Structures are given as C-alpha cells and as structure tokens.
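Sequence design from tokenized structure. All designs in this work follow the same two-part layout: the structure record, then the generated sequence. An example of the structure record is given first.
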C-alpha cells in the first residue's frame, strides 16, 4: 500500500509492504500530530493509486477514524449519538470529520493491518466499518 500524509509523501508516496513498515507509518503519523489536531493519511493500493478502495485515515495519540472510499463507502462508527465534527489535519489543511466516526486508536491500527493483509480490500463483513451515505 502507499501513504500520503505530508508534503514529502505528496511528491513521493511512502510504500508500506510489511507490518514493520506499517508500524513506522503509524509512528510517523503520530509524530506529525503537534497539538490538538491529529493527522490524516491517504492510503491506496500501490499498484493502482487512483483506484478503489482507498482509505482516509486519521490517527492521533488516543483516537482516530477510517473512511473507506469504495462501493459502498464505509467508515468507522464510534459513538453513534455523537454530534458535531472533530478537526484533523491533512497536509496543513484542516478537515472536519463527523464526531460519530471517531474510534479508539487501536481500531484504526487494526483496520490498517487488515487493509495491508488483504491487499487493499478490507473484508466486507468487517464489523469495524459500516456503510455510510452522507449520514450515519
């Protein structure tokens, strides 16, 4: 898989092929978080960077989110009753993420492992992701 999360990787995406490289990616994303706004990475299949499914992954010290751009699109669901937005940062641009999509950091990491282990295709029955259609 490939990851874009800063200006450097925007020019030359980071390739992640092993669990050790994934752990390094998680560390780099966490280190980018300076203050209250965690970072976002765009994750794609290395061989087809413009194809689907693609992930938007926010990862902070304690929480994060995953949005899977696929057919159908899916996202993590933390507190389904949460309202408002949580701010995340994608290459120096603030992004508003629905608060109900925010989950524990461990859930985000587990979904990244699933994406890597399944060649960019998280199984459709994975209970950590649910179909979304612009709402909950």
């Amino acid at each position: 898989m490939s990851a874009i999360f800063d200006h450097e990787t925007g020019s030359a995406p980071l390739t992640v092929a092993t669990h050790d490289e994934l752990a390094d990616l998680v560390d780099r994303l966490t280190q980018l978080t300076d203050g209250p706004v965690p970072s976002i990475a765009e994750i794609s299949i290395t061989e087809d960077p413009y194809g689907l499914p693609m992930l938007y992954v926010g990862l902070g010290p304690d929480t994060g989110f995953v949005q899977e751009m696929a057919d159908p699109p899916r996202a993590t669901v933390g507190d389904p009753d949460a309202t408002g937005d949580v701010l995340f940062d994608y290459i120096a641009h603030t992004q508003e993420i629905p608060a109900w999509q925010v989950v524990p950091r461990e859930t985000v990491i587990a979904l990244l492992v699933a994406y890597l282990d399944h060649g960019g295709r998280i199984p459709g029955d994975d209970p950590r992701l649910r179909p979304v259609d612009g709402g909950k």
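The chain has a mean pLDDT of 93. We note this feature because it recurs in several other targets discussed in the main text.
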